[in-house]
Amino acid sequence: YSPFQEKILAYLNRLQWADGSCSDLIAYLNLFKVWQHKKRTNAFSQNSNSSERNWARQNYINLRALNEWNILVNEITQRCANLGIKESVGQTRVTLDHIETPLFLKVAMCGAFYPNYFRRSSDGGQVDEREAVKILGGKDPCKTVYFKDMDHSQPGPLYARRIRELFPFCTAKMNVYFDNSFRVYVEFNPTTLAETIQVEGRHFVTGMPGKICKEVYCAVRRRQLKMHNVVNCLLAHDSWKLASSLGLCEKLSVGNYRLVRRPRFKHSTTSVLPDLDIQYIKIFVVVCIDVGHFWAHNVDEETAENLQKIQKHLNSGTLAQIPKEEIKVEEIYAAKYDDNHLYRCKVIPNTHLFKENSKIIQVLFIDYGDIRSIPINSLCEIPADIRDIPPQAMECVLSEIQPSVVQNPKANAEFEKFTKDANLYGKVYSVVNGIVHLELFKDLPHDDVAENSLSFNNELIKKRL
């Protein structure tokens, strides 16, 4: 059950019991097993009724429903025994491991609900990825939500703290963005490690499966529950005056203010990426990681000139070596590649290699996408003339490619054949966190001959790879 004003807490509790499966049925099964274990071990023995009721209330479960489930389980077990179906014991008992158990439960649930279940197709009910990123101002839809009806005459950053308070359930770091419109964007930055909690000696995963973070699910749940998000604002003049005193804006003239922009880094470490209004780009694949993940160059004069300029400045003289104690993660340096020529690179944050006593460091060659482990004393300072040139290689991912396809050797061979020594066209779906999601074509598609354009994504489907 979900008490009034505690519906989000009840939802989070259910996620905990779901153990990372995002299934109500799994959540109830885990909760029922723990309740049975506590009953068998007399955990409710002291002041039994009160203790058991408190436990049920803390876990937002109806105690009467638990007892009804127990009666139903006993009845089904007895009926199966009358038919000679009993749980095996001793050496013949089948024990499922942590991989087999979820599969068995999935099959059991499909059988129980047959034919009243469905499997969503690849295009059924999907949201257009390109459109979703546009709505969110280029931010990651898997980590971002937005509010509407913000008074655009107000200094948004003044109310950022209040907006964060609308998510008391959020344990991740939050960034609040404004774009001088009626929209407010809230981006969550959850940890990459699986969040777990220990209950009755067992660890439960409190996160969600897939790429969408738990905080986005909770925010959407708030909307489904029609929970009001209220931010009380001052009068516009008073708001700007307060924001000015806090250093959030600067006064241009009487009654005229401008928000203070955050300082940018001294040089860019972000690749040259397509804008949101660009639908097709011409690219050349330079490094292939697998069928769904690669690095590419833009095929244009500017990229060719920049690459030539970088190589000329790096290999025309002697560069100063960087002392080990001055090396910083994500900073841009120069290092020799396999061909013994210098290329620009940045240090990858890798705790296994980047240690005090380590003589090896891992770098990403930012103009091509290769990753190499090199001697830590081989990094050199790059000339100032090419320091501000953005990385010329962009990281790309094929849109709507599943992990099973990525691990298919035949699909990887087809991708290598499709991209080898060829200029290709990419239909841009989205650009999220510096990664371009696209569909690959041999030739530039046109509206009237789109079906005749060879799409690599469609080729994988046709060949059932």
From TrEMBL:
Gene3D superfamilies recorded: 2.30.30.140, 2.40.50.90
Domain (Tudor) ranges: 326-389
GO cellular component term of the entry, any: cytoplasm
Superkingdom, taxonomy of origin: Eukaryota
UniProt cross-references to PANTHER family, sorted A to Z: FI20010P1-RELATED, TUDOR DOMAIN CONTAINING PROTEIN
UniProt-recorded name of the protein: Tudor domain-containing protein
Species of the source: Oryctes borbonicus
